[in-house]
Structures are given as C-alpha cells and as structure tokens.
Design a protein that fits this description.
Elements: E1 3-4, E2 17-19, E3 34-36, E4 50-52, E5 57-60, E6 74-76, E7 81-84, E8 98-100, E9 105-108, E10 122-124, E11 129-132, E12 135-143, E13 156-158, E14 163-165, E15 180-182, E16 204-206, H1 220-223, E17 230-232
Length: about 240
C-alpha cells in the first residue's frame, strides 16, 4: 500500500485500531508506503486506542489534533520523516501507554506537559538527530524536563542518539518501575545521580558517548542493582559493572 492517508479517514469515528505499518520498501518496487502529512482529520477518531503508522514515508508536522485522541493507548510512528516540534498537546493523552516517535527527523525539546501522560510505560524518541545528504535536524534537544519524574509507570526510556544537553536529572530516580534507560550518544553532563539506584528494576543503563567528565563515575549503588544486565559509560569513567572497556 502507498499514497497519502486521505482526509476522509476522519469519518471512521468508531475505529479502535488503525495499523498501517511496514509499507516502506527500499527496493526495485519503488513502494514508499504511506506518504505526505497526516491529515488533521485524524483527530476525529476519538475512540481510537491503537495508531500504528511505523515504517512508512509520512512527513511534515504532527497535527495538533492528535491531542484529541483521548482513548489512545499506543502511538507508534517510528521510521518516518516527521519534522519540527513534538506537539505539546500529546500531554493530554492520559491513557497513552506507548509513545514511539523514534527514527524520524524531529527538531524539538521534550515538552514538560509529557509528564502528564501518567499511564506511559514506553517513551521512545531515539535517533532523531540527522546530518546527512545536505539535510540537518537537531533531533530531541535541550534539557531533560524534570516532569519526566512524574511518569511512575514508565518502564522504558529511550532518547539516545539525539542532541540532549544539560545535566542528568535526579528525577529519573523516582521511576521505580524503570527497566531500560538509554541516553547514550547525546551531550549530557554528569554527575550520574546516585538516586538512579532507587530504580530497582533497571536492567540496562546506557550513558556512553555523552559529555560526562572523567571525574564522575558510575555510582556503585547502580552497579549493585539486582536486575542489572548491561551498563555502559565512556571508558574514561570508573565503573565496576560496565561492558566494553
């Protein structure tokens, strides 16, 4: 399937699952999947629980009307060409459990309003930084908002391969269900907060390729977490549990 998503999609007001993923092909077929911008009429689908449009060639700004999808539980938009800012209005989606806008072309800070998505278990915004073929995007940039500490159900936080700056925020230590913390390949500074050891479910902590000074190391309390399988920092930092150095 390919072509634009037509505006008449907004007439399907009883729809609960709209899954049109995996249509992009880089082969002789020339099939690019669904292309162009999402129509604003998508906001009329207020009964929608799953919106999965991953692996297509959709582009443009995410429509503000997506904030009207009050029943939404999964929003999967990875591997497209969405640009510009993350819509602040997504913070209204209190039932949302999965937000995946990874591998796009965004240039945006993380809106503090995203701390209101209290049902969120997965936040994936990785790999939005781009500098290729004459096209540049800043990716997810600026500082991590302290409001992320309000996401008490969060299990997976992936914002690696972007342009995040500032210090690692201590509020992540309030996410007691967190299993995956991927912040590698940014410009974040230390120290690595000791309170991350409060995240007793952590299995993966990836912090390498940032701007953490060599005077800071991985806190020993994190290394002693019972579920920890994988930890990485730059080799210039002390770490008794890290891999790859």
């Amino acid at each position: 399937m390919d072509g634009p998503i037509i505006s008449e999609i907004g007439h399907l007001t009883s729809l609960k699952d709209l899954s049109l993923e995996d249509n992009f092909r880089e082969d002789s077929s020339g099939n690019r999947g669904f292309v162009a911008a999402l129509p604003s009429e998508i906001g009329s689908l207020t009964n929608l629980e799953i919106l999965s449009l991953a692996d297509n060639a959709l582009s443009g700004q995410l429509p503000l009307q997506m904030g009207d999808l009050i029943s939404l539980r999964q929003l999967r938009l990875r591997n497209n060409f969405f640009e510009n800012q993350l819509p602040t209005v997504l913070g209204k989606l209190e039932l949302l459990e999965v937000l995946d806008i990874s591998h796009n072309w965004l240039s945006s800070t993380i809106p503090p309003e995203y701390g209101n998505m209290v049902s969120l278990t997965t936040l994936s915004l990785e790999s939005n930084y781009r500098d290729q073929n004459g096209y540049f995007t800043w990716g997810i940039n600026g500082e991590l908002p302290i409001e992320l500490g309000k996401l008490k159900n969060l299990q997976h936080l992936r914002i690696n391969d972007n342009y995040l700056t500032g210090t690692l925020i201590s509020e992540i230590g309030q996410l007691f269900l967190l299993e995956t913390l991927h912040l590698q390949n940014n410009f974040l500074q230390g120290p690595i907060p000791e309170v991350y050891s409060n995240c007793v479910m952590l299995k993966e902590v990836l912090l390498e390729d940032n701007s953490i000074d060599s005077q800071f190391g991985m806190p020993e309390g994190i290394c002693r977490l019972p579920e920890l399988d994988l930890a990485k920092v730059d080799c210039s930092l002390s770490c008794t549990c890290c891999h790859g150095c």
